[in-house]
Design goal:
Blueprint: H1 11-25, H2 32-39, H3 43-55, E1 59-62, E2 65-68, H4 70-92, H5 98-108, H6 114-123, E3 147-148, E4 157-162, H7 165-168, H8 173-179, E5 187-193, E6 199-203, E7 206-210, H9 212-215, E8 219-222
Antiparallel strand pairs: 1-2, 3-8, 4-5, 4-8, 5-6, 6-7
Length: 223
Amino acid sequence: MAPHQPREWHPAFEEYCEAIFELREDDVDVIQARIAERLEVSRPAVSEMIRRMEKADLVTVDGGSIRLTDEGMSLAESVVRRHRLAERFLTDLLGLSWADAHVEAGRWEHVISPTVETAMMRVLENPTTCPHGNPIPGTDYRPPSAITLDQLEVGQSFVITRIPEELEFTPGLLEFLESSSLLPGHSGTVTAASPDGTTTVEIDGRAVGIGSFASMRILVTAS
């Protein structure tokens, strides 16, 4: 008997389920406007797709709030897992930058087969996060006790644990974070906090100013 093959979905369904999953993961209200912003599509296009996804039993809508069904969650986790695994493969083994890997992984996530996924996990020695520290669904990831960077006091030291997906979609931010050594596992010290919300840190021997949007989202552990 042939092994059971997972149902194949159109890439658009996969992208929408992925976006909904990641928005909720980042504690962002999952409404049509936020999905339109994340996917850079029109509100009418999102409205039409959500109707199609409701018919396919991938989402439910209650008072404007959109939630994945069990089927939708299963699809989302599969796509997110392939995307984050691809990012790890592209950065760790092929040496691509964070930004380039993020773009390429957006293509790979739709075509990686279960056989290739298993092989990639083996070659990468079973990673639990993507390069940015976001968990790979289906692994034994255990979240650390983390807070956002802006909550630290001047003089406190920290270790970066995670760069949430929301920051990956901000133009130019991945390049800035990578070039500034604001990477998971790197340690630093808060040296200043400005009234406008900018946090200045010393990391890898250099001073880096981080705007409020990023400092309110970068997750760290105090050390």
